Amino acid sequence: MTIKIEHRGEIAVVTVDNPPVNALSQVVRQGLLEAAKALDADPSVKAIVLTCAGRTFIAGADVGEFGKPPMPPQLPDLVSRIERAAKPWVAAIHGSALGGGFEVALGCRFRVAVPSASVGLPEVRLGIVPGAGGTVRLPRLAGVESAVDMVTTGTPLGARKAHVAGLIDSLIEDDLVTGAVSFARSILDRPLPDALCDRPVAVPPVGFWEAAERTVSARAKREEAPLKALACVRRAAETDFAAAIAFERETFLTLRGSPQAAALRHVFFAERAATRPPELAGLTPCMIRSAAVIGGGTMGAGIAAALRDAGLPVILVERDDGAIERGLANVRAIFDGAAKRGRISADVAAERITGITATRDYAALADVDFTIEAVFEDLDVKRDVFARLADSCREDAILATNTSYLDPERIAERIRWPERFLGLHFFSPAHVMKLLEIVPTKATTPEVLATGFSLARMLNKIPVRAGICDGFIGNRILKITRAQAERLLLSGATPTAVDAAMRAFGLPMGPFEAQDLGGLDIAAFQRKAARARGEACFAPIADRLCAIERYGQKSGGGWYDYEPGDRTPRPSEAVAAVIAGEAKALPRRDWNENAIADCILWPMVNEGARILADGTALRPSDIDLVKIHGYGFPRWRGGPMHHAEAQGLDTVAETLRALAREGLAEPPCDRLLEAARRGGFSEVRR
Ligand code: 3H9
After folding, report:
1. CB burial class (10 A; 0-12, 13-18, 19+) of residue 467?
2. Residue 123 designated active-site
3. Which pairing describes strands 118-120 and 110-113: parallel, antiparallel, or unpaired?
4. Over the stretch 637-685, which tens digit does the pLDDT of each residue have?
5. Cis-peptide, bond into residue 73, ω within 30° of zero
6. Which residues approach ligand 1 with their CB closer than 6 A?
7. Which atom number of ligand 1 is nearest to the Cα of residue 134?
């Protein structure tokens, strides 16, 4: 039974039981509506407690229903029915009351919660606004400022803060339902507060809306929903309840069918699917109680910080006292920075640092569960580290390499128990970037792979399983992006025009600005190694720039010139001369923003299709997650594979053919053509 009613004296307890997260599917809406009617008609009932079974209160509307025609009863009608019920409803919240779930709670006359609960309206993260009165009732309860903050960012509020803000009437420390029933009894003799629909909205100070619009639009960049959510709260403050509800509903329905909402829904389901590769279903990961990081450079320090953030004690291994000092200083800088920005307190920062033991003695790793190597990207150096780890760690310890380009199979060659080894590719800064490419070798056991995914969850990362190839998923596509960017220069575009076009598309930075920031020398080093292996690398202009020591911002110039102490990229005559010197092979043409974006994006998708064909990625949506969480691809575009599908794979294939005729790209690969025929890459979308 999805909805259960139980009587505790004059209090009825209505329990929603719709695993996994009690989403408001049609059955739940119907069941709650019938319960509301039945309880109104039952003279023995004086108040109702609404609670949920399982791990959470109602986590929202059923997102899986959004692509389908709406089915009655509608959620706004259900919320109104509860709000207008003859007897008061008390929402008893544990876990998360989110979206439609919080809207149902706002329809209740009271809300009580356990301290670990959270409440929020995260709809903007799905490209929509609340559609069941959230933007209209919340300002009546919390004030306009808090409501704007919550609906435009989508950030949930912990129960303690929500209690202080007046969103929660009482915190229940012991058993929730018992406490909620006592609370419901305690209100029976008191006059009831007005339902939220009958309360006014306090007028905000002069200039509030203009300032809010500036803030929200700067933060949202090109996402539509946050500004629309702001408009809904403003309408709630400036008009009557019914008109504001109608405006919110219309906005919700329009956005629900928008390309941005479809893209964000795709990412929502993709993120959840990525955490569970089908072949790991039912496997129990190994326990991770402690971790070690080998190498305290930028990457190693970031990984150590991420492990500490997850509460694990960490041993940091470096080769000498000087390197130990530098490694600890790198980690300290991360936590001090977090404390300075107010993300953590100074006490927490100090506790995180003291949780790291630094040593150069591998014997200290004798009892560590999980070890991550993050030393210099050189096969011999890494192999040497693993030989020492194999001698020092327990035989059931897991050993991981954080390599970006080397072959994990070759790194593992000298390990005595290769089945406990895997690749974990973090992205810099490792304590911030959400992506973690998880790369099993042929020998890695399913249990060890499952533990890699479990570690990702502990670190709050998005894990994507990747097969072994040059650059795994992300850097393999990055190589194509960079080659395309150079082809554009060889055929008449400028670095400024290419970067501007990609920013206009929604990337935080264009490909040349990004290379100048990261440094051109790293990719040059990798090209050298690849060429030594006999691989071809197309980077004629970048090669020339490195030859004249233009490595990017760090050397005062790369693709652009920089004034000392100023990161503003300025077009460079020296670079223009290098481009002119190389630009013989390709015909020149005029490029506009859309054509530039196509020339970069569709070859990325073509490579994505090859990555699917050779099994380097399990799903197209995994490729989307890699580009979103590792490379700043705009989330609201859904990732390159989703974006290509949304634009039409026939059009993508046709553009690739046209570019190929001009020598500007590879023609569409078989997998892309097959997907175009079938109408899409196989998807996890519901
Ligand atoms: C909304 O409410 C609109 C209204 O304003 C208006 C309507 C008229 N629907 O995240 P997990 C599935 S918009 C369907 O791994 P956790 C999820 O796919 C909604 N399915 O668990 C996964 O399935 P599977 C506003 C959902 O414990 C499983 O549940 N609400 C929904 O780490 C477990 O999910 C939100 O945006 C859903 N709403 O985290 C809240 N939510 O096992 C979205 C989850 O098959 N949800 N699933 O892969 C969350 O933030 C997290 O799920 C939550 C639990 C924090 C609740």
Report:
1. middle
2. yes
3. unpaired
4. 999 999 999 999 999 999 999 999 999 999 999 999 999 999 899 743 3
5. yes
6. 20-21, 23, 56, 59-64, 75, 96, 98-100, 103, 122-123, 126, 130-132, 134, 269, 272
7. 5
Q: If residue 244 lies in a helix (H) or strand (E), which one and from where to where? A: helix 241-256
- How far apart are alpha carbons 178 and 184 in whole angstroms? 10
Question: If you measure from the C-alpha of residue 273 to the centroid of ligand 1, how many angstroms do you get, rounded to a whole number?
Answer: 12
What is the CB neighbour count within 10 angstroms for residue 195? 19
> Quick one: pLDDT band at residue 686, thresholds 50, 70, 90?
very low
DSSP code for 685:
-
Report how far residue 469's alpha carbon sits from residue 274's, in angstroms, rounded to the nearest whole number. Answer: 20
Reported as a single tens digit per residue, the pLDDT across 186-235 is 999 889 999 999 999 999 999 999 999 999 999 998 999 999 999 999 99
In order of their start, the domains of the chain are 3-257 (3.90.226.10), 288-465 (3.40.50.720), 474-683 (1.10.1040.50)
Helices 593-613 and 640-647, interaxial angle, to 10°? 110
Compute the distance between CA of residue 408 and CA of residue 400 in angstroms, rounded to an integer. 9
Q: What angle do CA 334, 635, 223 make, to 5 degrees?
A: 105
pLDDT, one tens digit per residue, over 112-121 is 999 999 999 9
Burial class (CB in 10 A: 0-12, 13-18, 19+), 676: buried
Euclidean distance between CA atoms 217 and 114, whole angstroms: 35
Q: Are 316 and 396 in contact (CB under 8 A)?
A: no
**Site of tokens 């203009």:** 210
- H or E element that contains 12: strand 11-16
- 8, 180 in Cβ contact below 8 A? no
21 Cα–ligand 1 center, Å: 6
With beta carbons less than 8 A apart as the criterion, state whether 75 and 103 touch. Answer: yes
Tokens of 493: 């575009």
**What's the distance, Cα to Cα, between the start and end of the chain in Å?**
24
Q: Which ligand 1 atom is the nearest neighbour of the CA of 269?
A: 18
CA distance 63 to 635: 17
- Alpha-carbon span 297 to 443, nearest angstrom: 29
108 contacts 55 by C-beta, under 8 angstroms: no
Å from CA of 269 to ligand 1 middle: 9
Q: pTM of the prediction? A: 0.93
